[in-house]
Prior knowledge:
Layout: H1 3-25, H2 30-43, H3 77-93, E1 97-103, E2 113-121, E3 128-138, E4 145-153, E5 156-164, E6 184-194, E7 202-211, E8 216-225
Antiparallel strand pairs: 1-2, 1-8, 2-3, 3-6, 4-5, 4-7, 7-8
This protein binds 2-acetamido-2-deoxy-beta-D-glucopyranose.
Residues 68, 70, 86-87, 90, 135, 187 line the site of 2-acetamido-2-deoxy-beta-D-glucopyranose.
Amino acid sequence: MTYKKVLIPVGILLGACIGVYFTYFHRPPTSDILAANRQRREHIPDMAGPGMSKLDDDYEYSDGEDDDDVTDFGEGPEAAKLSARRWLKFMDANDLVSIGELYDRCEGDSKIMLGKVAMVPDPVRGGIMARTYLNTTLKKEVSGGEMYIECSYNGKELYSNHWDLCTVEEGMDDRIIFCPIGVGKQKFVKNLEIPSYLPKGRYTTKAWLTNQDEDILGCAFSDFTI
Ligand SMILES: *[C@@H]1O[C@H](CO)[C@@H](O)[C@H](O)[C@H]1NC(C)=O
């Protein structure tokens, strides 16, 4: 074979690889990813949960506006709205890009918001992380349970799995779950790396925790694009 005959297929292959790389893997700079997710969320108010579409409507906080320690909002639509607005304020005050919410259950309109998922830059490795904030009040000791996760990529189911709740974080440096988890106020912050090898696209995830009696402890929904 002459050089030319070899070089042409090699060139085509190389071109194809570079094309695939730029189409699927080459991510925009971290600041652009953050800006895009901030914008997306602001334009899809329904995704942000009950009462989240506007910060300055006529709703008044009934109490505890300056109290950092509210983790028990009660039940019902008003409580749901109050919880959502508190977390919106928290995200706003800390200038965080929201990519998800945590609730006390997976279904229904009056879900109480227990936390938020923010997209933050990773100062150590570069790239981005998902940071979960959770403030809750446990009414019953947790001595066991499961953690479930379902992920979709560009609208198609990609991955689902479940683990034992008490050991899911075993071996992690920043472990936060140690069983038994006692009753009362619990506040957690957890960073998870969004791996740089993930292809570009839209990721939606649902994750939920159950206790030893298979009661749902909480449910998280997130939605972001990279
Ligand atoms: C959650 O708890 C943290 C730490 O106490 C507090 O700073 C934050 O305001 C709380 N968030 C909400 C929405 O209450």
